[in-house]
Amino acid sequence: MKFFLLIFSFYAILFAMTSSYRLLPTSYTTTRFMNINILDTKELHLYTKYGHQIDELSGIELCRDGLYVLSDKGSLYRFHLILHNNKIKKLELLESFLLRDKNGKVLKGKQRDSEGLRKYYNHLLISFERDERIVEYSKSGIALHQIKLNKHLRDSSAFQGENKGLESVVYSRKYGIITAPEEPLKLSKQKYHTLYAKNQHWKFRAKGSITSIESIDDETLLVLFRKYSFFGNRFTSLVRVHLDRCNKKRVCQSELLAKLDSIKGWHIDNFEGLCKVGKNRYLMISDDNGSLFQKTLLVLFEIMN
C-alpha cells in the first residue's frame, strides 16, 4: 500500500500543471504597476499523456474550443482553460499535434521554427522565424495555405539574422494579416520597428525585440517586447500602438504601458506569447528555451487605461 501511494504521489508531482509564482518585486505591496495590473501568475509544469515535457512555448491564443499553445519546436497544444475571479484556476491538456505540411509530413529542421500564433476565422495563423513565412493551419496542425507577405519581407537576406524572423502575427478585420520582424530589417532605421500588412506598413519607436502582437481594437495593437540574457539584465515591455495616429512618414503614436525589468526586482523570464482573453485582459507566456534554469510562466494581467 505504501509503495502504491509513493508511485501515485510521484505521478501527481510529475503531471502537476501549475504552481503559484511571484512575478512582482519582493518589496511591492500592490499588483498595479504603471498602466497594468498583474492579476495572477503561475509557473507551468506541462507534460503530454506519454510523459514528454511540453516546453519552449512561444505562441498562445484563446479560441472558443480552448487555449491553443505553440512550441517553437513545431508542436501545437490545445488546453482547457478556466479563468475565475481574475485567477488562473485550471489548465488541462486536451490534445497535442505535430505541425505538418499540406502532404501530412511532419515539419523538420528550420522549417519547424514556429513562433507566432493567432486565430483566423475557424483556423490558425502561424508565423515562422528561420524560414520566414506565415501559414494558415487547421486546428489539428495541418498546413492549409501560405500567406503572401509584404514585399519587404520576402527576401531572407533582409532580416538581421535567421533567428530574427517573424516572431509575431495578428489578424485585423480592418487591415488584414499583420506581422513584424523580431528586429528592424537591415536597411531600416534601427530606432523604429515596422509593422507590415500585405500592402501597407506602420512604424513606431523601438523598445526591444518584438515577440508578439495582439489587437486591442480595430485601430490599436498591443506589442510585447523582450530583452533576455541568462546572465545579464532582462526586461519585458508592453507597448500600445495606434495605427490611426501616424504622420506622413508612417510613424505612429505609441505609448509604453509597462516595463518589467529584472534590475528593478521583477522575477521575469523570456516572454514570447501574448493573447487577449477578455475586455482589457490578457495572458502572457514565457519560453523556457528547454533549459532547467528557466521557467514557463503564465501571467494574467489587465490594462488599466
Overall description:
It is a single chain. It is built from one helix and 22 strands. It is mainly beta and about 300 residues long. The chain has one domain (about 25-305): Neuraminidase, CATH 2.120.10. The strands form six sheets. Strands 1, 2, 3, 20, 21 and 22 form a six-stranded antiparallel beta sheet that branches. A four-stranded antiparallel beta sheet has the order 4-5-6-7, with no helix packed on it. The radius of gyration is 19 Å and the shape is globular. The N and C termini lie far apart (about 55 Å). Residues about 1-15 have low confidence and may be disordered.
Q: What are its keywords?
A:
mainly beta; 51% strand; disordered N terminus; 305 residues; 4% helix; 4-stranded antiparallel β-sheet; 1 helix; Neuraminidase
pLDDT < 50 stretches: 1-16
Q: How is the biggest beta sheet arranged?
A: 6 strands, antiparallel
CATH-defined architecture: 6 Propeller
Average pLDDT reading: 92
Shape verdict? globular
CATH level 3 topology: Neuraminidase
Roughly what percent helix?
under 10%
CATH class wording? Mainly Beta
Structural class, by secondary structure, is mainly beta
Through-space gap between termini: 56 Å
- How many beta-strand segments? 22
Rg (C-alpha, Å):
19 Å
Domain count: the total is 1
